[in-house]
Amino acid sequence: MEEDRFLTLKETAEYLRVHPMTVRRWALAGRMPCFKVGRQWRFSLKKLAEWTDESSPDQGIGEILIVDDEENIRDMCRRYFEGVGCRVRVAADGREALARIEENVPDILLLDLRMPGMDGPATLGEVRKRWPEIPVTIITAYGESALMERALDYTPFTVVKKPFTFEKLLQAVQVGLLSRQVSDWPWRKGGYRHGTARKEKKLREL
């Protein structure tokens, strides 16, 4: 029988590709399998895998909007997600992305951080103001950067670092879609609160 492994809150966030405070919210809300050892959360790797499988939308991802200024990235992602049954639209920058969303709100947004003109954080901020319910997955080669610092003002989102595999990208997108099933996310409490993530980053694991 395969031995189970138990993860810390930080390890679970890395496994799910979300911010640690997102995991903490889910745990406090009783929305994911976990338990406490003293003051610290622990998560069974086996149960996490079962939870993500069970929580994935039965009807698939639906429509995804891919926003990246690199044409080859847009084309590769389009081909992959169309191959797994998604409806796909693309945009080369933030302004074009907002126009696409105005036409039809996607089920999830796949967003690059570094783009000319309206960059990823600025686009994400506008999306949070106008369509806060849209789950977002960020794809970036700049995981530790000023761009990511700005984006953290608008969590929750999942993150995939370039270069990426499509398996990791799909996992991040599926986890991002779980946000619609969790009742305690910021937009479900009367609107998104700008700047919350910066304060949360300073909190230690409980």
General description of the model:
With 206 residues, the protein is of the alpha/beta class. It folds into 2 domains: 1-55, no CATH class; 63-181, Rossmann fold (3-Layer(aba) Sandwich). Helix content is 42%, strand content 17%. The strands form 2 sheets. A 5-stranded parallel sheet has the order 5-4-6-7-8, sandwiched between helices. A 3-stranded antiparallel sheet has the order 1-3-2. Strand 7, helix 7 and strand 8 (158-161) form a beta-alpha-beta unit. It is globular and about 50 Å long. The relative contact order is 0.16.
- Tell me which CATH architecture of the largest domain applies here: 3-Layer(aba) Sandwich
Written as H for each helix and E for each strand, in order along the chain, the element string is: EHHEEHEHEHEHEHEHH
Alpha plus pi helix count? 9
- Which homologous superfamily in CATH is the superfamily of the largest domain? Response regulator
Examine the coordinates and then state which fold CATH places here, giving the name of the CATH topology of the largest domain. Rossmann fold
Ends distance: 31 Å
Query: Order of strands in the sheet with the most strands?
Result: 5-4-6-7-8
Extract low-pLDDT stretches.
183-206
Summarize model confidence as the mean pLDDT: 79
| Overall helicity | 40-55%
Provide the domain count.
2
Shape: globular
Q: Mind telling me the C-alpha Rg?
A: 17 Å
> Structural class, judged by helices and strands?
alpha/beta
| Major sheet | 5 strands, parallel
Query: What is the CATH level 1 assignment of the largest domain?
Result: Alpha Beta
Can you count the beta strands? Answer: 8
- Which strand-content bin applies to the residues? 15-25%
